[in-house]
Design goal:
The protein is of the alpha+beta class. It has three helices and eleven strands. Strands 2, 3, 4, 5 and 6 form a five-stranded antiparallel sheet that branches. Strands 1, 7, 8 and 11 form a four-stranded antiparallel sheet that branches. It has a two-stranded antiparallel sheet with strand order 9-10. Strand 4 and strand 5 form a beta hairpin. The longest helix is centred in the middle third of the chain and has 29 residues. The radius of gyration is 26 Å and the shape is elongated. The relative contact order is 0.27.
Length: 211
């Protein structure tokens, strides 16, 4: 009886199905009340826009973090005594789009309003689960196939699977995508946004008995 160790890997790529847009608000002013006022207006507008997208069915989820204000002190340029006090008010609004055709439009809309927008891509939970199961089965199959090859080389065949050890699969969407609004000819040009693929992979190490 022989014990054979083999590793199997599976990897597949799937088009992203969701895009979470992170809109970051940051207002700096020497007047604390003004900083809070402008940031609150932008925050409420972004939250309202996200709610509209949910109601229309173009988004599945959104969240608005509370605004926060902090003070930054620095010296005036060329001076070691004159202190400048600035008040920075910031917050975040996130919205998960199911209608990926709106990604570029919404990023541009947020950018034009003075927010910094970035995009994170993902699969739906149901799809991710199904693709992970498929990857695990394929990885086990590859490990067993490799073990069979070694067994055949010895004039034997695999008779039993002793152990299977899982190395967690990872999913990658690439780095967060960013788009910017570009002004031209009095009209806003939308920056092209390509929907990326998400990689789902699985790796297993197996121990097999052959005879």
């Amino acid at each position: 009886m022989t014990r054979i160790h083999a590793t199997g890997t599976s990897e597949a790529h799937y088009r992203a199905e969701r895009a979470t847009i992170l809109a970051q608000i940051s207002i700096t002013s020497t007047d604390r009340s003004e900083s809070i006022r402008i940031a609150t207006q932008l925050h409420n507008w972004a939250s309202s826009r996200a709610q509209q997208l949910r109601e229309s069915g173009d988004a599945t989820w959104h969240a608005a973090n509370p605004i926060s204000t902090w003070t930054r002190k620095s010296y005036a340029q060329g001076s070691k005594s004159k202190v400048i006090v600035e008040h920075i008010t910031s917050s975040q609004v996130r919205v998960k789009l199911s209608n990926l055709e709106l990604v570029s439009e919404l990023v541009t809309e947020f950018s034009e309003a003075g927010l910094h927008a970035s995009v994170e891509w993902a699969l739906t939970e149901d799809s991710r689960r199904a693709y992970e199961q498929s990857a695990r089965k394929a990885a086990v199959g590859e490990a067993q196939e490799i073990a069979e090859d070694y067994a055949n080389a010895l004039g034997e065949r695999v008779t039993r699977v002793v152990t299977i050890s899982d190395t967690r699969q990872t999913a990658f969407g690439g780095p967060p995508a960013r788009a910017m609004a570009v002004a031209g000819g009095g009209q806003t040009e939308l920056a092209e946004v390509t929907v990326p693929e998400i990689t789902v992979s699985a790796t297993v190490s197996g121990e097999f008995e052959s005879a």
